[in-house]
């Protein structure tokens, strides 16, 4: 169900968004407008959501990047896992980061916005994968841009227990419907597809997925990790 499926009119729309913003910080309110601003706007109408103070796509991505860089996640990861630098010198760590498009909880959906073939979500995840002589260690930090919610997880696996590293690229069809016109009597449908990239670590009877954005450096790191896995898998 889309964000605005439950909205039946402009007054209901305004109440819905006002309730979403209740108790939020100013930045979180701007983020809510960023994801919802198109809902109430139509050429020639007054009282559009958002307005000139609404975030642009570039501003939103910069906000996410600033928050990510301020977290010092490498140091946080080593502290949470309880590792020393000398224990993880086998190969350089893999750093994964990306919008958590599929990360839906029972109480909170992930919002997705697409402009000019650029897709962003209201939740972002970053993972560090470290390699010791016998194990891999994974630390993931996830945050929501519309709330104070954060999640931290740590995992570790012996090489012998890992079945495979798998990367997956999935195209997701996204069709948004909007009520249009000042009297909200028209319906407009818009389709914008986006790509979801994940790394999947498969172990017996289970698997774990991590958000990622593909690039050449990451691909080289993944190839090194797969070679490491083949080399150490049968070492006792």
Q: Which ranges are low-confidence, i.e. pLDDT below 50, for 5 or more consecutive residues?
A: 5-9, 39-52
- Strand order within the widest sheet? 1-4-5-6
- Our estimate of the beta-strand percent is 25-35%
| Helix count from the secondary structure assignment | 5
From the N-terminal CA to the C-terminal CA, the straight-line distance is 50 Å
Q: Give a count of the beta strands, DSSP E runs of length 2 or more.
A: 11
Q: What is the 3D form? A: elongated
Helix content range of the residues, please? Answer: 25-40%
Based on helices, strands and strand pairing, what is the structural class? alpha+beta
Mean pLDDT: 82
The sequence of SSEs as H and E is HHHHEEEEEEEEEEEH
Q: Cα-atom Rg, whole angstroms? A: 21 Å
Query: Main sheet, how many strands, which sense, barrel?
Result: 4 strands, antiparallel
